[in-house]
Amino acid sequence: MWVKGQKQQAFVSPGSSEELYTKFRARALQHRETSAPGESHADMKLLYEFWSHFLCRNFNAAMYQEFRNFAFEDAQNKAMSGVNSLISYYAEVLSSKKKVIPSVLALHYVDLVKNEDPAGPRPALEKLRIAWRDGALDMKSRKRIDNLVDTKLREELERAPHQKSEMS
């Protein structure tokens, strides 16, 4: 069972509380509608965290699309918890030794990296750079990402973190 704050599935003790996903999702989305711009309700943050872990082990296209859509909608309102969870999801899928990153996820991840503001923080680039440079990336996943990377992004991935390009 998934437990908040843990990367691995955990044993659930008999005294623990549990809640149906459908009820929790409905409540989180209701809170999302009433949240102020730039804020994510705790339930919505938890839903994003749940999606980022659950989808790694139990991919569901409709759930993934919902996760991605809400994350980008919230980001337009300056609430970044959804996009941050999405980045964590992509990084976890990319680093999996059990399976190759699906083509659509690789494409979405690279697009997210390319669309980050070069003047601001770039968490998607940093996570991709770590996977790219540390040598632990599965060769088939690396090839899938490599086929989507243009020259400019390749240079950014190869550059040491926080090293500015000569054009900056």
How would you sum up this structure in a few lines?
The chain is mainly alpha-helical and 168 residues long.
Would you write up a description of this structure?
The chain is an all-alpha fold and 168 residues long. Helix content is 60%, strand content 0%. It has eight helices and no strands. It has helices at 21-34, 42-57, 61-76, 81-94, 103-115, 123-133, 139-146, 151-158. Helix 1 (21-34) crosses helix 2. The longest helix has 16 residues, at 42-57. It is globular. The mean pLDDT is 86.
Tally of helical runs: 8
Determine Rg (CA atoms, Å).
Answer: 17 Å
Mean pLDDT: 86
Terminus-to-terminus distance = 47 Å
Pick out the low-confidence regions.
none
> What structural category arises from helix and sheet content?
mainly alpha
Q: How many beta-strand runs? A: 0
Ordered list of secondary-structure elements with their pairings:
Blueprint: H1 21-34, H2 42-57, H3 61-76, H4 81-94, H5 103-115, H6 123-133, H7 139-146, H8 151-158
